[in-house]
Specification:
This protein has 143 residues and is α+β, with helices and mostly antiparallel strands. 29% of the residues lie in helices and 41% in strands. The chain has two helices and eight strands.
Amino acid sequence: MAQYGVTYRGRNITVVTTTDARSDLVRCVVTIDGVDYPDLRGNPFRAAATAQVTGAGFARALIDAELDGDAVAYHGYFIKLSANLQRDGSWVGSYQFHRNDNPVPFRRVVCDDFHGNTQVEAEEHAIVLARQALDADIAAGRL
């Protein structure tokens, strides 16, 4: 068992890795201020260093999402939302999927099927569609 700890933006992060003796794979559990997050994408890992780096990155991304309010954690992925004002005065929402702390999204979608009256309304519609798309991809085995 190996443990890595750090304080990031006033929150305490602990990354604990354990190696399975039979499979030689490394399991990673991230703890932020005493709350465990065991369902890290990529678990189990082949190397302890990879597990620790991924775990710490996930924790930093989760803290940023909570404090900045610009992303939502869902099933181990991050959904970043935005909305754009249209010429007619309506708002169109969009979302991006990110893995762990990777700043490059692996999917971007504009939800132009719905025009909201406010930015919040457009983003709320986008988050519903994003969660449905992520659930469908996970169920189909694509993620």
